Amino acid sequence: MKWSASIEYAEQTDEIIRHALRVCQTGTPGPVYIEYPSHVINQDIEVKPALPPAAYRLVEPGADGQMVAKAAELIKNAECPIILTGHAVQCSRAGQKVRELAELMGCPVLQTSGGNAFIEGIEERTFPYLFAEVADEIVAKSDVVVAIGTEIGEPMHFGRGFLWAEGNVDRKWISIELDPEAIGQNRPIDVPLVGDLRTVVPQLSAALKDSPRAEHPDLKRWIKEDKDRLAALAKQDFTTPSGRVHTGQWVVESTAAMPENAIHVRDGGGTVVFTWTYLQGKPRDVVWNQNFGCLGTGLPYAVGASIADGGKRPVLFTTSDSAFLYHIAELEVAHRFNLPIVTVVAVDNAWGLEVGVYKRTFGHGNTTEPGVHWSKDVRFDKLAESLGCQGMYVEKGEELGAAITKAFASGKPTVIHVPIDPVINHGGNENLDTANYARFRTWYAEGQQ
To answer: Which is nearest to 296 in space by CA: 341, 251, 334, 329?
Structure first.
């Protein structure tokens, strides 16, 4: 909580509300708390017209001009500048401003694991850090990194370790960050551009407009190689020993059927690791909670996103079963508001990621993995129907895409129960089947023990 206050006199209301908005929007955005005692609530006051935000607080501040000029010179003189986008780019709806900068820089864009929404117009030149081979080469060749709306945190190896320790290790860093206290927390920054990215990114673009860079000579090759990677993943043999759906196929079929304008909401553990690798769509809005390995936020996020959107755009919610169980009662809200949410549940009847942790820690056959398995009798399609939604049961991966298309066409909130292979999902004793799990462990807590 960034600030708390109590309104003790009715006449203080405007003053305290304005200061609360000032505090919550200054630096790193965060919550504030206002106590409104009952004796104040019952008082009559003269309600004056609300002041525009710019009249009482700093709105979208820009960066220092000299720092912008210094950043522009670094970019102009670089051999391989890149952009690293964080979640704030999506939250601030600044995608087109970042697109203009990327085109002026002629560069690829790398996504952080928290900032994995795609920007319209530059989807092809955008690659996920850690989960696309071409991103490894891009990091190694980069000599200037423009980090936008990201804390450059643990999943990015703080911009210092793992991939960043290869190639041009003396690369320069430009950080566009609203909170001055966040500058340099996780790694040294050569050029800090402190301000709102909605203002700072256009400042930087303006400084580069007279001398736009040519497209990086490897960009077209990187784009082709990543397209080939995704196509190959979609065509792999998804046969499983159990006959249940392969988690990779669950991702491929779900995201290939995702409407182009959909909001993609994610939740889960192992299923999210698969999603980073197998994702076939390029959604422009992605909602999920990366921090602290938190589970269960997905359905409330999906409901909130759809209501905020006015129910106009389709919402695809891909989730594991364990995460979905946390707040499954929110399906009643989806039904009550008739929200266009299609939920695709990967069901392995376990906390799949934790099963793998048990096996790697104690050895296969040496543990019953207490507390991470649950009843195989749970049917999410039936639970959905009991809460007023439409339910579907799909046990063949090749039929999942058509089911999702049918669900969206129905206009009803729908839950699709998909049984997935539990061994594939947790990866066995060594996670041999979980794509890129070894890379995930380079920052995930279990891999650091």
So the answer is: 329
Residue 208, φ and ψ in degrees, nearest 5: -105, -10
DSSP 56-79: TS--SPPPPHHHHHHHHHHHHT-S
Question: What pLDDT is attached to residue 435?
Answer: 79
Sheet holding 414-419, edge to edge: 285-287, 263-267, 315-320, 341-347, 414-419, 390-393
What is the distance between the alpha carbons of residues 201 and 94, in angstroms, rounded to a whole number? 9
Reply yes or no on whether the pLDDT at 360 is more than 90: no
What confidence category does residue 434 fall into, taking pLDDT thresholds of 50, 70 and 90? Answer: confident
Please write the tens of the pLDDT for every residue from 170-201.
999 999 999 999 999 999 999 999 999 999 99
**What's the token pair of residue 281?**
């769509």
Q: Report all structural domains of the chain as residue ranges with CATH numbers, in order of start.
A: 3-55 (no CATH), 65-222 (3.40.50.1220), 236-448 (3.40.50.970)
What's phi and psi for 104, nearest 5 deg?
A: -65, -35
